[in-house]
Protein 1
Amino acid sequence: MTAAPAVEAVELVKHFGDTRAVDDVSFVVPAGSVLGLLGPNGAGKTTLVRMLTTLSVPTSGTGRVAGFDIIEQPNEVRRSMGLTGQAATVDEILTGRENLKLIGALYGLPRKYVAEATERLFARFDLTHAADRMAKTYSGGMRRRLDLAVSLLAAPPILFLDEPTTGLDPMSRSGLWDVLRELVTEGTTLVLTTQYLEEADNLADEIVVVDKGKVIAAGTPTQLKDRAGKASVVVTLTNAADLDAAADLMRAHSPEVHVERGSRRVTAQAGGLGDMTRIAAVFETSGIELDDLGLARPSLDDVFLHLTGHRAETEPDAGASSSDATTEGVPS
Ligand SMILES: Nc1ncnc2c1ncn2[C@@H]1O[C@H](COP(=O)(O)OP(=O)(O)O)[C@@H](O)[C@H]1O
Ligand SMILES: [Mg+2]
């Protein structure tokens, strides 16, 4: 892409005592594109976002947002971007509408503009019906949408989203994806962090995979999934006695077939839905009884296993550390 970079990380490093939270990370995000920072809990995603949004000072290295240096020009950086975090910036005891009014006042935006933008944003995020209810009565999905509306009030050309859909049910998640896609259509540059390959796959033009503070892979969603291995067709047999016959049938349609006797499962590497349909058809006429047949796609776990040789460690507490609080994210 030839567009000027909207965001650049240049050899960013952040140490907390002995913890190398971010360990020499560089990437470039062209204007108008979506970068997905993908990694498990504790990978360093929030720390990266906090440095790029001027909330945390790098140990070394630097970055640029809209061409402004995050260390030399923090005020210009803040004026060019919005941030929405895992911990909502929303004030619970204010109504939705009052939350936007407050942020508008903090930004010094004209009242008339704030009133109009609030109506527009609430209509878009399906919050109009709840505009005059206290935010503490909102569901998780509604809070995220209000948080996003708050971040968009000043119409920033660059938006950072730290795990925007973590904790949301699948419906709210895909609703939020639609909203984010719309923003991109209008030219907004997005940098989003996520633990979900599916989310990065759905939204990102480029994915940077981070683990233990380091970039372990980068590429388009398709490139990454290809590196993690193809999808597989998994059949579960009714009778263990059919395992070998089933494996032989599947070998005719797949270069790699794996038998798990204990669970009566046969797994065949497959290119996609077409292979699943063909294998299903073979079993129709074979007389072999199946309990289940399905397509398993590479998960973030598989990507990690493939790239690092170890499973993504789950550190449930890492995400809840104080570094996730973004309440200080309001430019002052
Ligand atoms: N303020 C802090 N003080 C000490 N350690 C921190 C702080 N913030 C983050 N860390 C540590 O840095 C690492 C990366 O954390 P974080 O950036 O929150 O990861 P992620 O957002 O990917 O879950 C973790 O080991 C975390 O415990
Ligand atoms: Mg985080």
Protein 2
Amino acid sequence: MNDIAAKVLEGDPRSIARLITHAENTSPLAASQMKKIHPYTGKAYVIGITGVMGSGKSTLIYEMTKEYRRQGLKVGIIAIDPTSPFSGGALLGDRIRMTELATDNGVFIRSMGTRGMLGGLASAVYDVVEILDASGKDIVLVETVGVGQAEVDVIKIADTTLVVLVPGLGDSIQTIKAGIMEIADIYVVNKADRSGVEQAVAELESLIDIACNDKDRKTPVLTTIAKQKKGILELVKEIENHKNYLKKTNRFQAKRRKRYEAELVEIIRKRLMNFIFDESTFKGKVESLIDQISKKEVDPYSAADEILGKILK
Ligand SMILES: Nc1nc2c(ncn2[C@@H]2O[C@H](COP(=O)(O)OP(=O)(O)O)[C@@H](O)[C@H]2O)c(=O)[nH]1
Ligand SMILES: [Mg+2]
């Protein structure tokens, strides 16, 4: 086995970081190494944490990580930051806050920018989850800001998804607009030290009564004060309850299948796009077809036939 995959399996942080970088850059080495590690994946439990900016997701993740470490579990964290176009440099604040964990070998933190959301990031996130899983992490936490469809799609890789809200600001209404209601497995009303908590919880509960799409399980609403480490243990227990529920009802396997389906489609999509738009001969062809479409010499459908016909023959 090539060094990098073998070292990832040993949990070596530098090799994990290197392979993630290769995956982000879709280098040929990434594909060969990803093939090697796949047989060793599937053990990590993936938790997605989404919600508006400033709701306390990173603070929650920090406290949850400390709790999981107390339980002897290894934790991988993927923080997706839409504000920075570059990975690595993003989420400096989060990184500083995480310093207590930075020296802990049982914790691996990676920030990613949303650069290339239309092409790059989505499949890179699947890779990063697989890499952290293969490296022996028991829990993988994925933080995204739940604002757009792309972020909602990313969070679909999670086994359990937490939607974090804060009292006031009519957050629950925003949530529905963003289509997040359907992906929430557990609602967390953080900043419960602020006023309006009861109202926020009541509002959410009534929305759940109307919109909850799982007949067998009512989506729970928890309150936390992440900054004061309050409600963390209860949250971790509720995630465990959800995991047990998924396993008992065979929904767990179905969820995983969905993730692999999405991953496979994403890899194929990305490769096809690269083939059509990056390969030198095709690129010229695409450019000239665009010119022809502009001049009404060809219509867009016939142009697509001309490109795809070469692949699908
Ligand atoms: N009052 C209060 N502030 C909190 C709580 N949890 C987090 N914060 C603060 O809210 C701000 C945003 O937190 P952060 O975790 O970065 O939010 P994120 O953008 O969702 O990741 C920070 O200043 C935190 O210290 C809480 O329970 N109560
Ligand atoms: Mg954050």
